[in-house]
Write a structure and sequence with these properties.
This protein is an alpha/beta fold and 608 residues long. The protein folds into three domains: 305 residues, TIM Barrel (Alpha-Beta Barrel), CATH 3.20.20.330; 89 residues, no CATH class; 180 residues, Dihydropteroate synthase-like (TIM Barrel), CATH 3.20.20.20. The chain has 22 helices and 22 strands. The strands form five sheets. Strands 1-10-7-6-5-4-3-2 form an eight-stranded parallel sheet. An eight-stranded parallel β-barrel has the order 13-14-15-16-17-20-21-22, surrounded by four helices. Helix 7 crosses helix 8. The N and C termini lie far apart (72 Å). It binds (6S)-5,6,7,8-tetrahydrofolate. (6S)-5,6,7,8-tetrahydrofolate binds next to strand 16 and strand 21.
């Protein structure tokens, strides 16, 4: 039986604390291989493997289905603190071999035992610039390769404090699986501090949004920092919103400082009561113990796992983007989701000048202004001819990641720029955009990035023949993109946001008189044929070439009819959209005539 098969049968029990257990063994500096290694628990698999074996055996005796390897900090960057960075692979492999050997001894057909490779958060926060994405991915890669080669049955990426750190680990896991042509289930577990967020300030909903798109993740959950009581609200949130099974491994209560030592007071019986509630009322699938839990806690959990079953969960799932702090759903009541347009070097003189002056803090202030004006997400484009767009994106995104509370829509045509942005963004981004202008070329570059970093994508209805003009052609191109995205690149329909693009109605050009209607009707048709995809428009495009007041009116009226047709999202100047009733009768009528091509005159510009 595999771990995932057992998961379908009954609640699974992980082991208890490794650190707490080792502490009670009163190990000496000699046990650690000398004074300079004292405290390096990961080194014990070489210097005193019997200590680690005892931890495993105690938890297996207590009835744990899964034991975690002694590798919480066995990646090179953490081992470097003991000058042991060269042992990242070896220690990880040895620890997995040791755990696998003992798990096998205890395994029976009716009670199989599994080994989870423990993968901790390291001591660095990439969102704070302590380390680059690539360096962090590499350190995890070394550790994970060792764990997989040593015989781990699954990976447990736990105690995560920074979603960007989690993304580095997930990228490493993808690379290890590809390298060894073998895939293991992954548990991802975040740590919610007593203040109610992850260390970086991340709400549980933002964490779920960022992790949900990764199909290599089997379970999502939380561990450490607090006891079960403080976790309840967040566990309930996961239970109601996660399509993946839930993992929960609390401490034995909040630590209390007793004579300078952390003391955990929750008894096995109290722990058992909480976990029974989590499993049989909320629907949690995997339980275990973190700091302060002992074999007695695990024995309690193990015996209850034989009698209780995980409750069926009623999950409501809405696709969303997220910043490092909060999620923003793809549906807004009332519509639309407002994507602020102003952090764009092509769309704002002020923003362009800030980027040219390398005033990245100033650029962030424009983001904050739009946040105050009611935007739900922000488009970000830093492209400028003659400048290094990768560098400008890097410098801007570093600050946006932690200073902007709204999700970012990465607007760039350059693949290296998109990837650079994704490597610096802890939340769930949207990529703007793909199209079929050069056939599949662009999708072939961008969609693998979406998969690797968990992003959603805006798709423009452009193909080899150029920008589509009629509603039928717009839908035809959209359907081709849906088919390729889902069936070839593994995206979900809900990850796709279609822009049925409009030409300006402000040129007075005869050819484009029906541009507005076709764009609106394409939205209606597409939403009817494919209710799972979302739609978006860069609304201001419709009025290029007109004077500011006319633009304002035309944009607002156009947006109104697009929403009526089912538009989900709009890239707009968030502070400037007027509801229809605020526009004077004359302006409204004129705009309506222009959009629906009911004009009784020749050139729009004159009339406007
Ligand atoms: N679809 C998608 N993405 C897009 C667009 C789209 N991204 C870029 C653009 N179009 C949407 N963004 C803008 C931003 C600004 C303006 C228009 C579209 C704009 N700016 C004024 C101007 O240029 O006159 C204001 C200038 C200023 O403040 O200096 O109109 O369609 N997917």
């Amino acid at each position: 039986m595999t771990f995932l098969e057992l998961l379908r049968e009954r609640p699974i029990v992980f082991d208890g604390a490794t650190g707490t257990h080792l502490q009670t063994q009163n190990l000496t500096a000699d046990d650690f291989g000398g004074e300079e290694y004292a405290g390096c628990n990961e080194y014990l698999v070489i210097t005193k493997p019997s200590a680690v074996e005892l931890v495993h055996k105690d938890y297996l005796e207590a009835g744990a289905d899964v034991i975690e390897t002694d590798t919480f900090g066995s990646m090179p960057i953490v081992l470097a603190e003991y000058n042991l960075e060269h042992l990242g692979y070896d220690l990880s492999k040895k620890a997995a071999e040791l755990a696998a050997k003992i798990a096998k001894e205890y395994s029976t057909p009716s009670k199989p035992r599994f080994v989870a490779g423990s993968i901790g958060p390291t001591t660095k926060l990439p969102s704070l610039g302590h380390i680059t994405f690539d360096a962090m991915r590499e350190t995890y890669y070394t550790q994970m390769l060792g764990l997989l080669d040593g015989g781990a049955d699954l990976f447990c990426i736990e105690t995560s404090q920074d979603l960007l750190q989690m993304k580095c680990a997930l990228a490493a896991a993808m690379d290890v699986f590809a390298e060894r042509k073998k895939q293991l289930p992954i548990v991802t577990s975040v740590t919610i501090e007593t203040m109610g967020t992850m260390l970086m300030g991340t709400e549980i909903g933002a964490a779920l949004t960022a992790l949900d798109p990764y199909d290599i993740i089997s379970l999502i959950g939380m561990n450490c920092a607090t006891g079960p009581k403080e976790m309840e609200e967040n566990v309930r949130f996961l239970a109601q919103n996660s399509t993946k099974p839930i993992f929960c491994m609390p401490n034995a209560g909040l630590p209390e400082n007793v004579g300078g030592v952390a003391h955990y007071h929750l008894t096995p019986a109290e722990m058992g009561k909480w976990m029974t509630h989590f499993v049989s009322d909320l629907g949690v699938s995997v339980i275990g113990g973190c700091c302060g839990t002992t074999k007695d806690h695990i024995a309690t959990l193990s015996s209850l796992s034989e009698t209780i079953r995980s409750a069926e969960r009623q999950v409501t799932w809405t696709p969303a983007a997220s910043s490092i702090y909060s999620p923003a759903p793809f549906d807004m009541e009332p519509a639309p989701v407002i994507i602020g347009e102003r952090c764009n070097t092509n769309g704002s003189k002020k923003f362009r000048e800030l980027i040219l002056a390398e005033d990245y803090e100033g650029a962030v202030n424009m983001a904050k202004e739009q946040t105050k004006e009611g935007a739900h997400m922000l488009d970000l484009c830093v492209a400028y001819v003659g400048r290094d767009e990768v560098r400008d994106m890097r410098e801007t995104m570093k600050i946006f990641n932690t200073q902007v509370t709204l999700p970012v829509v990465i607007d760039s045509t350059e693949y290296p720029v998109i990837e650079e942005a994704l490597k610096l963004y802890a939340g769930r981004a949207i990529i703007n955009s793909i199209n079929l202008e050069d056939g599949e070329e662009r999708m072939g570059h961008v969609l693998p990035l979406c998969k690797r970093y968990g992003a959603a994508v805006i798709a423009l209805t452009i193909d080899e023949q150029g920008m589509t003009k009629t509603r039928e052609r717009k839908v035809e191109v959209a359907e081709r993109i849906i088919d390729l995205s889902v069936n070839k690149y593994g995206m979900r329909e809900e990850d796709l946001i279609f822009d049925t693009l409009t030409f300006t109605l402000g040129s007075g050009d005869e050819e484009f008189r029906k541009a507005g209607i076709e764009t609106i009707e394409a939205i209606r048709l597409l939403k009817k044929l494919h209710p799972k995809v979302r739609t978006v428009l860069g609304v201001s495009n419709i009025s290029f070439g007109l004077n500011p007041h006319s633009r304002h009116v035309l944009n607002s009226v156009f947006l109104h009819y697009a929403i009526e047709a089912g538009l989900d999202m709009a890239i707009v100047h968030s502070g400037k959209i007027m509801p229809l009733h605020k526009i004077d009768e004359k302006g409204r009528k004129l705009a309506h005539e222009i959009i629906f091509d009911e004009r009784k005159w020749e050139a729009v510009t004159k009339a406007a």
